[in-house]
Amino acid sequence: MNSTGNNARISTTLAQFALELKLEDIPQTVRERARHLILDGIGLAFATSALGYADITLGAMRELGTGASTVFGRTEKLGLRDAMLANGLLVHGLDFDDTHSRGVIHSTASALPCAFGLAEREGAGGAQMLTAYVAAMEVSTRIGAVAQGGFHKVGFHPTGLVGAFGCSLAAAKLMGLSMEAAIHAQGIVLSMASGSMEFLEDGAWTKRLHPGWAAASAATAATLAKHGYVGPGATYEGRYGLYALHLSDGATPDLSIATAGLRETWEIEHVALKPIPACHFTHASSDAAIALHREHGLAVDAIEKVVVRVPGPVVEVVCEPVANKKRPANSYDAQFSIPYIVATGLQKGRFTLDDLDDAALADPAVLALAQRVEYEVDPESTFPRHYTGEVIVMTRDGRRLAHREAVNRGSSDRPMTNAGIVDKFYDNALRVVSRERADQVREAVLGIERTSAAGLANILRQAD
């Protein structure tokens, strides 16, 4: 492993950063972007709340007991950790939430439930909540980036695995922990951080739980540390630390990334927003297919074969196992399927939440075309900086039609504007709430620095 370049342990440097961070240290543009990322997450939580797996999850949490913590878009309250678990699922459930490209992590899905839940319990101001959220985002994205895509290769989902560490420091900050306790909190959560990619094999629901579990584990670890519980110090660089334990033999994580640019470079500015509701690895290919539809309007029967060029490291996630990808069993399978998403784009010229319902998944034209979609590794990909994609269509009359997306839409090099995020919020929120209610939520979130976490919680609990 590459060294950090100094003698300080990573956990010490990160704890110092998080505990000392003040709102005024964060540039205005970063604060504004952070507020909009939170708004995006809340809009997704509203949209998810209408789906069956959300009701099932909330029913299970209610059986574990009620409490005083708010669940996004619900009138009932749960215990702190159960609310975090539920809120993480609501933000992440549609797989439409933000992604830090280099860290390959959906960071808001854990940072927001943790910062919101503890800020509400502690009676913190909105400015304190926002600062803790930023701290979690900056830490988790860097910790993820150190692995250079290596967590996925051995079957770990970075959103659950890595999110726990940033959240442990957000929790330490909101709970007023000492430096020593904040270091212990990271070491304690090392034994709790988790997230298996096995859901890819059969479309299981488990991935949706990962970010909320990261938040709940972090709150648990920070509380244990507050009471004097001792955790290991070499959380990241140790013999059995995060990277040694969760990367394959021969992997070369760059530990310097974990602390590089703290207080100078803000990773929130490199968080990508999702313009379509699917795994970020599929976006460029989806857009390429949609572009070909708009330019050529090909009928399904006119297409002999489709080849999709994707970055090598994403093949196992969105291209294999081939049989599953060509005939998704459910919406989650579909969101991680290059054949289904590309076939939908070529056939319909779009990919939206409506293309994940049961009728869309059974569309015979799309499924027939998906059978003719193959993949190959893109030798020109700039992954993980960009999630590239190219779609090549061979027609039955001998034509070769191609479109390449070298920079995925929504990435930091091709960002969604804050106004675009607001539009996306309304698209999602208005699926389940009135325009008046959505307006109230937007104003409360974008004005969070002038209010309190409790004030935001009251608005999020209101029923139409």
TrEMBL record:
UniProt similarity note = Belongs to the PrpD family.
Q: Which PANTHER family does the protein's record reference?
A: 2-METHYLCITRATE DEHYDRATASE, 2-METHYLCITRATE DEHYDRATASE-RELATED
**GO MF annotation list:** lyase activity
The name on file for this protein is MmgE/PrpD family protein
Q: Where is the MmgE/PrpD C-terminal domain?
A: 277-445
The MmgE/PrpD N-terminal domain covers 13-249
